Amino acid sequence: MNAPASIPTTAAAKLPAIREQFPTLAQTVHGKPLVYLDNAATTQKPWCVINAIAAYYEHDNSNVHRGVHALSQRATAACEAVRDKVRAFVNAAEPAEILFTSGTTEAINLVASSYGANAVGSGDEIVISTLEHHSNIVPWQLLCERSGAILRVIPISDDGDLDLDAYRGLLNKRTRLVAVGHVCNALGTVNPIHEIIDLAHGNGTPVLVDGAQAIPHMPVDVQALDCDFYAFSGHKVYGPTGIGVLYGKRRLLDAMPPYQGGGDMISSVRFEGTTYNELPYKFEAGTPNIAGAVGLGTAVDFLQTHLPEFIPLEAALMEYAESALAAVDGVTIVGAPQQRVGALSFLIDNVHPHDIGTVVDLQGIAIRAGHHCAQPLMERLGLASTARVSFGIYNTTADIDRLTAAIPEVVRIFG
């Protein structure tokens, strides 16, 4: 297929130079050039991120906040500079509102454990949605088991959009928290997050947003959203694994007890009792992932440089992928949300998604097959699993063409 006219030619012309920055993309898999379409699971890393991590370990490796020697001072300065960089990236009010975690999952668990300890009791309610990743379901189930609270779920339409009327009906005087994804990892549904937050705040209820799938694809301004918590992972934004961010409003974080105990989260320790450190360190017990933070800072720089051109390019790529896949006999695209970004799920008649993934892998094409850690959503759709393609800053229409060209082989073997 030829690329539609809507593909921005200026941005597309820069793609070869962008792709050259990602060493993983230069390899062959099963003798074929790699096509990587599994970015919702994790993104590849550019040389600048790889080099920044290597440089930290080569020159500055030391623990932070504890040493007076030069290496410790450099490592501390680098880590705190990234905190302020992330603050600017999401437009938090101050660096103290940015907590480093191991990823989105830990960030959500932190809120469930710490905020939940004070704010959620027996008979209270927590609202999530049908579209959630397991990491934004199970922590709230665990909190409900501990506290006696009740989990409420916003239903979705057959197209994969949230039912806002039903959501309005769920909010009541016992609702203690709303926790929703900004973008669904399985369908790519972009939720009306402004309206979700406004409705919750009108009920006096704080909102946590799982931003793991949104932050690589769109600007996020936590003050404009007025969300109370926002969580995301470094490895989804071309940074390393094992590092993530929880943004929280200071007034909420100040009122929350520590999530874990240990070094650096204390001001003083006596056997008779402990005084906790100030924000953000109160929630960062032990040695942090310093190299991960350094890599995250470089990834944020990289993403901010390229995101303005990537947004229209990705929109055109999504349109191209939907059209190309729909044109293949036997292929059904799952869901038709009003707005979709980042990810697209599909099925092939009479072929298990795992078989789709296996066959296209032999053609050097990496996609995701399974329930995408969204089993309740799959159950709602009447499915066990789907095949999913998800896009990154380096993907092209040629990647989609490779995928659609491989599908007839899938059908030949399994159809």
Keywords:
single chain, 415 residues, alpha/beta, Aspartate Aminotransferase, domain 1, Aspartate Aminotransferase, domain 2, 2 domains, 41% helix
Question: What share of the residues does DSSP label as strand, in percent?
Answer: 15-25%
User: Average pLDDT across residues?
Assistant: 95
Approximately how much helix is present in the residues? 40-55%
State the end-to-end CA separation.
23 Å
User: What's the CATH C level of the largest domain?
Assistant: Alpha Beta
- What CATH calls the topology of the largest domain is Aspartate Aminotransferase, domain 2
CATH superfamily of the largest domain: Type I PLP-dependent aspartate aminotransferase-like (Major domain)
What value does the Rg take, in angstroms?
22 Å
Poorly predicted runs are: 1-5
Q: Multimeric state of these chains?
A: single chain
CATH architecture classification of the largest domain: 3-Layer(aba) Sandwich
Descriptive overview:
The chain has 415 residues and is α/β, with parallel strands linked by helices. It has 2 domains: 9-45 and 307-414, Aspartate Aminotransferase, domain 1 (Alpha-Beta Complex), CATH 3.90.1150.10; 49-299, Aspartate Aminotransferase, domain 2, CATH 3.40.640. The chain has 14 helices and 17 strands. Strands 4-10-9-8-7-5-6 form a 7-stranded mixed β-sheet, sandwiched between helices. α12 crosses α14. The two termini are 23 Å apart.
